[in-house]
Design brief:
This protein is an alpha/beta fold. It is built from eight helices and nine strands.
């Protein structure tokens, strides 16, 4: 069965909360805390060709595949959206999207993929942009991670400067200065948007 057809057949009334933000803003941590705070919320897991980092789990943080496998998936139209970034592929498959059918869901995706997703799925998508207190703070967070070569660090920071400029294109903007406060604010946004949907 064509996975693209599944989206039009079931789960169209659910909400997709799309969270974007520059590298170093803390998206992964925020999403994890949101899932703990709202256990009925599903996470849509994206796919990447990059190597797994320490502490990452396949099927939880990403679906990890080889570059060749990713290319084969592109050739067979498996992706809602995909991109190449710093020599690695990232994308959202129709299958991963449909696996959470019937549940409101959180999706962590960068600014490049946002418009493709909104255009290609029939669900209502609520977009939330996470901003760091400053780009210097984002840089400090990336440096503290300790797993990025200097050249990749600088490329990520250049991209972060561009991404911050697109924040105004999102439904909601939340500054991630204090984690607990950030999670509380996004939980309130989610509750409000679900209430609107139900009414």
């Amino acid at each position: 069965m064509d996975e693209r057809n599944l989206n039009s057949r079931r789960g169209n009334s659910r909400l997709i909360f799309l969270i974007s933000g520059p590298s170093g803003v803390g998206k992964t941590t925020v999403v994890q805390r949101l899932l703990e705070a709202i256990p009925e919320m599903a996470k849509i897991v994206t796919t990447t060709s990059r190597s797994r980092r320490p502490g990452e789990q396949g099927g939880v943080h990403y679906h990890f595949v080889s570059t060749q496998k990713f290319q084969d998936m592109i050739d067979h139209s498996k992706f809602i959206e995909w991109k190449s970034h710093l020599g690695h592929f990232y994308g959202l498959t129709w299958l991963a999207f449909c696996e959470t059918s019937g549940r409101n869901a959180i999706l962590d995706v960068d600014t490049q993929g946002k418009e493709d997703i909104i255009r290609r799925v029939s669900n209502r998508v609520v977009t939330i942009f996470l901003t760091p207190p400053s780009l210097d703070e984002a840089k400090d967070r990336l440096v503290r991670r300790g797993d990025l070569p200097n050249i990749e660090l600088e490329l990520r920071l250049d991209k972060a400067r561009q991404e911050v400029q697109s924040a105004g294109e999102y439904d909601h903007i939340v500054e991630n200065a204090v984690l607990d406060s950030t999670v509380d604010k996004i939980c309130a946004i989610i509750a409000d948007e679900i209430l609107k949907q139900d009414n």
